[in-house]
Amino acid sequence: MRAIIAFLCSLLLVIPLASCTNDTPAAASYTVCFVLEDGSTSTYLVGAGECAVAPQLPEPPQGWYENPNLLSPSYDFSMPVNRDITLYGKWVADAPASSWTVHFLGTDGVSGPTLMEVKHGDRVARPADPVRNGHVFLGWYLDDLYTRAYDFNAPVTQNLYLYPLWASASQGREDFFTVRENGDGTVAVTGLTYLAEGVDVIEVPQTIGGMRVSSIESNGLGDDIRCIILPEGLETIGDYAFQQMDHLVSVVIPDSVKEIGDFAFYFCPALSRAVIGDGVERIGDYAFSSCTRLADVSIGAGVKEIGDEAFSACAFSSIDIPEGVKEIGVEAFYGCTRLVSITLPEGLEILGDGCFSVCHSLESVVVPSTITYLGAYAFEYCSSLEDVELKCSVNIPERAFANCDSLRTVSVAGVSTIGNSAFYQDSSLETVELPEGLVSIGNYAFSGCTRLSGISLPSSLERIGSSAFSGCTSVGELIIGDSVTEIGDWAFYDCGFTSLDIGDGVTDLNGFDLRYSTSLTHLTVGKGVDQLPEEFAAGCGHLIAVTIEGDVTVVPDSAFSGCGHLRSVTLPDSVVDVGDYAFYGCSNLASVDLDGVQTIGDRAFSGCSALKDFILPESLTQIGDYAFHNTLGPCVLNIPDSVVNIGTYAFSRMRQLVEVSMPVTVVTLPGYVFDSCPFLAEVELRGAFDVPTSWDANWLGWNDDVSLVFTGESGE
């Protein structure tokens, strides 16, 4: 196929040439060379000021690029051609190649490798620095304009062409430097006395005035230097030593250096390569902060501490932290938006606050078992982070992994506390393993984790904070163990429960807003709860079964109203009051045990169109308006002698009601209590020969054929 494409292309081109290396055409025209998918080339001539035309291929590329690494932007065919150009096509392969070739390009006088074969996804080994007479090597780049330094920690996924960057002059005479004697036979370099025109490389000598150079101090070498060669024997790079050197491109720090000071290379916008020697023990605060082109970094094996914001806002895609590092400071790698992978070694003890926050490209992280302190917002806003494994036993602090939009799985070891907002708004989080020993889950800890499901709360858990799981719309089944004694407000607001079992240790339900849940089917409230909130599970249209085990005395207003699929309700014997609208509209509820109930509120069971099995207990004194309106009702209804008041329409439209037995001790009886009961045939009035005069004349409603049976000894 590739041979056919190449052949067709050659037929379509105006003037085919053998290769991109043909003789230069006359000034009136320029050569445009196209590199095809199989590596073959075809060229044609374009008149000066005319536009090139892309060849018509059976399988055209996604674009044509002047850079062999296919770096953006793609070539603009609307621009007139004013020079010879070579364009490389970008094809997407069906499957990646098993290996790639990395070309190290050079010029005359260069010694070093020319190409390396690398397996797909592996890193290319950094070759020894090439040598060129009269020049200093500054680093390898992906483009010949030297805007993109190559990151040797990045995996190789295509053929690469790397360009060497050189500086061509140096200055190193002792009398060009100002120094301060330290009193111990060493000197500190404090500045320059002279910088020749065109010099962009400075070589600091090992000795000045017969004394060893031990340190370089604050920002005394100017900002026009591209490269500084530091001597062996140097021990300290001072605070602010090279800060804001606008043209500094490369630095190699010798093994003799023990400490890199605070702000040492701060805001060096052109710095792309830094080699830190094995003798360095501490990299200071902000040492390389805001070096926005720093893509090629090697940290020496001797480093023990990386300071606050030491590498914040740098450009590398991967970095290896040496095994000897004990502490990574506050926001040390904050805002390294190209950082894809990082290896944290066993032995590391401290990860400072925000150490990797806003690393948008970071994909996974394993936190080693030796960590003793994990800082707040350590990985916040790592929007590409997918997998986290915490091997350590430290607590997870506030916002540690908040706003990690791609985070899918979290595995934690022996933590006792998950802090406030620790996984806040991690909208892709699907599973989290909560270990035994976990005692507290903080406020908003998992709020907004809309895909989180299969949560298993350990038996050690005691506290769940406010809004801890709010907005977790995919939770499914959840069992809250008896060990949990505190649940904060709105802890489970807008959660997608299918089944919820609240353990005996919970005493307060303010953390549960189950209203209008579209997924909850089964609900159990444990023995520790003695009070339900109003509208507790109102509008849960798929709720099937409810069990209340605690010593609840009141089923509050609208507690289960609108639960159209509710079929089973188990209430404790302690219930004495069923509130207004408590079960309103529960159209599938067929039975309810009211033993011990004293008052039934307005419309408490109104609209329970399947309700037929219930007995009004001897404890009952009050029946509210429309209390059993539009229910199926029992065939025989016995209203006990204890009832004092019955509301209007209380038993209206009971479609199965045939007989009623009620006492005349009811003080008042409003109109239409039994209105529109189509099969009501007989009402027995116990204790009288006549209807009490205090009753409304229309108490039966529109039931003209009802027979009244009096069983008393005298009328009123």
Automatic annotation (TrEMBL):
InterPro entries referenced in this protein's UniProt entry, alphabetically: InlB-like_B-rpt (IPR013378), Listeria/Bacterioides_rpt_sf (IPR042229), LRR_5 (IPR026906), LRR_dom_sf (IPR032675), Surface_bspA-like (IPR053139)
Coiled-coil intervals, chain numbering: none
Pfam families: Flg_new, LRR_5
Major localization class: other
Key words, A-Z: Signal
Localization terms from the record: Cell envelope
SUPFAM superfamilies per record: L domain-like
Signal sequence annotation: 1-20
Domain of life: Bacteria
GO CC aspect terms: cell envelope
Protein name (Swiss-Prot/TrEMBL): Leucine-rich repeat protein
